[in-house]
C-alpha cells in the first residue's frame, strides 16, 4: 500500500467571542485517515461539520493545534508558508465557488498559466500548456481569451479543474465540486474528475453534502459530525449497511427523484448542537434515536473493523430500525 | 382558484451585445394551495422569472409582452408603491442564504416586529405573534430566541427563522428560491416537511425553485421545467417525473445521479450548451442538443397538451 497522505488525530481550534470572554472551539476534533495513490476519498457532513476546515488544514491554509499530517514522506503540518509552497505543486485545491475563485480581471488563458508563474516554472511554455490543459478538461483553445464572467457554471468548474491539474499534482482536494451545478452539468464535472483520475493517476479528496455524488465517485467515504469522523469505510459497504446512526439517518433522508417512492425515514430532531456546547458522552446522543444511558456519559471509541471504523457504542446491524419506529411517510 | 397566472410572459434585457431574450412565452399557473416546483439549469431564467414576479427586474430588463396575474391584478402594470405593498405581505420570499435575508445587527424579535408594520397590532401583540410563529417553525425556547441575533442560530435554524418571517403575514404566495441547497440531507428533509406543513396551515401557495429533482419530487404538486428561458414542459409532478414528454425533461431526469441504481463511474450528461439568448434559434430552443431532432424542429414548436394539465413544447409530443 502506497499511502500518499496520512492524517493523524488532527485538531483545529478557533478562538471566538468578544475579547474579554474569548473561548476556543474545536472545528476539527481529532480526525485520522489515510489516502492511497489513485484513490478517491469523500468526506460528507452538514455545513459547519468541519469538512472545509479539514481540507484547508491538509492544504496548509489553516494551522492545526494537535495531530500530524504527512504528505508522501514528509510531515507537512509543521512547515511554514515558504516551505509549503513547493508541496502545493503536488497537492492542489479546487475551491467551492467556481466563478469566485477565478480573478474576474484575468482571461482564462492567464488563469490557467498562473500556477506556472507562481511556481516559477520556466521549462514549460504556457502557449503549449494552456491549450493542452484546456483540451484535457474538454474546452476548446478559444476559451483562453474569455473572461470568467463569460463562462457558464460548468465551464468555470472546468477551468478550475484545469488550474488544479496544471502542475501535475498527486492529490486534488475538491471542495463541493458540484455545488450549485445542475444535474446534467454535475455529471460532466464528475465524469471529468473520474476520467482525469484514471488518466493521470490522481488521488482525490471530495468534500460534499451530496450523497449521490459520493456514491458514484468515491472509493471510500467518511461521515463527519461536529468535527469528528463518525464512520469511515468503503463507499459501497457504507451505502449498503450504514453502521452509525447518523450515517443511517443521512442515507435514509436522501430525497429521491420519484414522487411515488415509499419513504422509510429515520427522523432526527433538527437541533444540531453548537460547537460551543458539545454534548457530553457521544456527541450525537442528543439526536440519536437509539440513544442509551451509556451514550450520555461515555464517549465511544472508534471500533475498527476490517474495512470499517464506527464511533458508536452499539453499531447498527444491517437494516436496523429505530426503537420507537419513528417513521415519516 | 388560481393565485398566480403567468401568460405569454416575455422578458428581455438590453446588453452591449444586443437584446437578450431571457424569458420567451412563459405560461403557467400556480393554483390555490398548491406547491409548484420550477426546475432547470442555471441560466434557464429561474431568477429572471422570480424578479419579474416581484417587480424587481434590473434596470436594463423589461417585460415586453404577457401578463402576471396575481389575485386578479396584473403585476406587470402596477406601480412601485402598490408592488411594495404586495411584497412581504401578499407575496413573500425565502432565499438560499438566510443570512442575506436577515439583518445581522437587529435581533430576530425586532425584525419580526418590523415586518408587521402594517398589521395595526400593538407591540406586545406583535411580539406574541412573532413568538408563536417561531414556535411553529420549531425554534426551541421561542421567547428567548426573539432576543437573539441571526449569527447566534445554526444554518438550519436560520433558514427556519427566515421561513417564519416570510410566512408571518400569511401571504397568498411564497416564493422559495433554493431554500434547502445549503443544508445536509437530514435538515433538508426536515425543512421541506416543515414547509409542507406550514403551507397547509396558512393555506398559501408556494412557487418552489430548485435544481434538486429529489426535493421537487417529494415536495411539489406540480412541476414546471424550464430551458433557456422557456417552459418546455409542465404538469403534475407525477406526470412529468413518470412520463416526461419533452426530450430535455427526459434527459434531465436521466442525468440525476440518484436515478442510477447501480454505481457508475460514468454519469449521463446532456452534450452541448445552452444557446446564446441574444441569438435564439428560430425554431425549437433545444434542437441543437436534442437526439430526436427532425426537420420540423426548425419551426416554432407548439405547446402540446398531452393530458389534462400536462403540456410539452415539442412537436414530437403531438405525434403520440
Explain the overall architecture.
The complex is a heterodimer of chains A (329) and B (320). Chain A is of the alpha/beta class and 329 residues long. Chain A folds into 2 domains: 38-56 and 78-221, P-loop containing nucleotide triphosphate hydrolases (Rossmann fold); 225-328, no CATH class. Helices cover 28% and strands 24% of the residues of chain A. Chain A contains 9 helices and 14 strands. In chain A, helix 3 crosses helix 4 and helix 5 runs parallel beside helix 6. Mean pLDDT of chain A is 87; it is low at 325-329. Chain B is built from 12 helices and 12 strands. In chain B, the strands form 2 sheets. An 8-stranded mixed β-sheet of chain B has the order 6-7-8-3-9-10-12-11, with helices on both faces. In chain B, strands 2-1-4-5 form a 4-stranded antiparallel β-sheet, covered by helices on one side. Chain B is globular and about 70 Å long. The relative contact order of chain B is 0.14. Chains A and B meet through helix 6, helix 7 and helix 9 of A and helix 7, helix 8, helix 9, helix 10 and helix 11 of B.
Q: What helical percentage do the residues of chain A reach?
A: 25-40%
Which sheet architecture does the biggest sheet of chain B show?
8 strands, mixed
What is the top-level CATH class of the largest domain in chain B? Answer: Alpha Beta
Strand content of chain A: 15-25%
With strands numbered from the N-terminus, the spatial order across the biggest sheet of chain A is 6-7-8-3-9-10-13-12
On the 0-100 scale, what is the average pLDDT of chain A? 87
Query: Major sheet of chain A, described briefly?
Result: 8 strands, mixed
The beta-strand count of chain B equals 12
How would you sum up the global shape of chain A?
A: globular
Give start-end ranges of low-pLDDT stretches of chain B: none
List keywords for this structure.
heterodimer, A: 329 residues, four-stranded antiparallel sheet, 14 strands, 28% helix, 24% strand, globular, B: alpha/beta, Rossmann fold, 2 domains, eight-stranded mixed sheet, 32% helix
Amino acid at each position: 500500500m502506497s499511502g500518499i497522505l496520512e492524517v493523524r488525530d488532527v485538531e483545529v481550534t478557533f478562538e471566538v467571542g468578544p475579547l474579554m470572554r474569548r473561548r476556543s472551539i474545536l472545528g476539527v476534533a481529532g480526525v485520522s485517515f489515510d489516502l492511497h495513490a489513485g484513490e478517491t476519498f469523500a468526506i460528507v457532513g452538514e455545513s459547519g461539520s468541519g469538512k472545509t476546515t479539514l481540507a484547508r488544514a491538509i492544504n496548509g491554509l489553516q494551522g492545526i493545534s494537535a495531530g500530524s499530517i504527512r504528505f508522501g514522506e514528509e510531515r507537512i503540518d509543521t512547515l511554514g508558508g515558504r516551505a509549503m509552497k513547493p508541496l502545493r505543486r503536488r497537492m492542489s485545491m479546487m475551491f467551492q465557488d467556481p466563478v469566485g475563485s477565478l480573478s474576474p480581471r484575468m482571461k482564462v488563458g492567464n488563469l490557467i498559466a498562473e500556477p506556472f508563474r507562481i511556481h516559477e516554472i520556466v521549462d514549460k511554455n504556457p502557449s503549449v500548456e494552456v491549450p493542452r490543459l484546456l483540451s484535457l478538461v474538454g474546452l476548446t483553445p478559444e476559451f483562453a481569451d474569455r473572461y470568467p464572467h463569460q463562462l457558464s457554471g460548468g465551464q468555470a468548474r472546468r477551468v478550475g479543474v484545469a488550474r488544479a491539474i496544471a502542475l501535475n499534482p498527486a492529490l486534488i482536494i475538491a471542495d463541493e465540486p458540484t455545488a450549485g451545478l445542475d444535474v446534467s452539468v454535475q455529471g460532466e464535472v464528475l465524469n471529468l474528475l473520474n476520467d482525469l483520475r484514471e488518466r493521470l493517476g490522481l488521488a482525490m479528496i471530495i468534500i460534499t453534502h451530496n450523497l449521490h455524488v459520493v456514491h458514484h465517485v468515491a472509493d471510500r467515504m467518511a461521515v463527519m459530525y461536529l468535527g469528528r469522523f463518525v464512520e469511515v469505510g468503503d463507499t459501497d459497504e457504507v451505502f449498503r449497511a450504514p453502521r452509525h446512526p447518523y450515517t443511517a439517518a443521512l442515507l435514509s433522508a436522501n430525497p429521491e427523484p420519484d414522487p411515488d417512492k415509499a419513504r422509510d425515514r429515520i427522523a432526527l430532531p433538527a437541533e444540531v448542537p453548537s460547537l460551543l456546547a458539545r454534548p457530553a458522552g457521544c456527541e450525537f446522543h442528543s439526536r440519536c434515536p437509539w440513544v442509551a444511558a451509556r451514550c450520555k456519559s461515555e464517549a465511544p471509541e472508534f471500533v475498527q473493523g476490517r474495512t470499517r471504523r464506527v464511533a458508536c457504542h452499539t453499531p447498527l446491524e444491517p437494516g436496523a430500525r429505530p426503537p420507537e419506529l419513528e417513521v415519516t411517510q | 382558484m388560481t393565485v398566480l397566472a403567468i401568460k405569454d410572459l416575455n422578458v428581455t434585457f438590453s446588453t452591449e451585445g444586443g437584446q437578450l431574450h431571457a424569458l420567451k412565452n412563459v405560461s403557467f399557473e400556480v393554483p390555490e394551495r398548491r406547491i409548484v416546483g420550477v426546475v432547470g439549469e442555471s441560466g434557464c431564467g429561474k431568477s429572471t422569472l422570480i424578479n419579474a414576479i416581484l417587480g424587481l427586474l434590473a434596470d436594463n430588463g423589461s417585460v415586453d409582452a404577457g401578463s402576471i396575474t396575481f389575485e386578479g391584478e396584473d403585476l406587470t402594470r402596477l406601480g412601485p408603491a402598490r408592488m411594495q405593498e404586495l411584497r412581504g405581505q401578499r407575496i413573500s420570499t425565502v432565499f438560499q442564504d438566510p443570512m442575506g435575508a436577515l439583518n445581522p445587527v437587529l435581533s430576530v424579535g425586532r425584525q419580526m416586529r418590523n415586518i408587521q408594520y402594517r398589521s395595526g397590532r400593538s407591540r406586545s401583540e406583535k411580539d406574541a405573534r412573532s413568538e408563536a410563529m417561531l414556535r411553529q417553525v420549531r425554534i426551541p425556547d421561542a421567547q428567548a430566541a426573539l432576543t437573539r441575533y441571526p449569527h447566534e442560530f445554526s444554518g438550519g435554524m436560520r433558514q427556519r427563522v427566515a421561513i417564519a418571517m416570510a410566512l408571518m403575514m400569511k401571504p397568498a404566495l411564497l416564493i422559495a428560491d433554493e431554500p434547502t441547497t445549503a443544508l445536509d440531507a437530514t435538515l433538508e428533509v426536515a425543512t421541506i416537511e416543515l414547509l409542507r406543513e406550514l403551507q397547509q396551515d396558512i393555506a398559501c401557495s408556494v412557487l418552489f425553485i430548485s435544481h434538486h429533482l429529489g426535493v421537487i419530487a417529494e415536495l411539489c404538486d406540480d412541476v414546471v421545467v424550464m430551458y433557456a428561458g422557456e417552459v418546455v414542459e409542465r404538469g403534475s409532478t407525477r406526470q412529468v417525473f413518470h412520463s416526461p414528454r419533452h426530450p430535455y425533461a427526459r434527459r434531465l431526469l436521466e442525468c440525476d445521479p440518484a436515478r442510477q441504481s447501480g454505481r457508475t463511474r460514468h454519469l449521463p450528461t446532456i452534450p452541448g450548451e445552452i444557446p446564446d439568448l441574444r441569438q435564439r434559434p428560430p425554431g425549437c430552443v433545444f434542437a441543437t442538443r436534442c437526439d430526436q431532432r427532425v426537420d420540423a424542429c426548425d419551426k416554432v414548436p407548439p405547446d402540446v397538451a398531452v393530458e389534462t394539465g400536462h403540456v410539452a413544447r415539442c412537436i414530437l409530443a403531438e405525434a403520440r
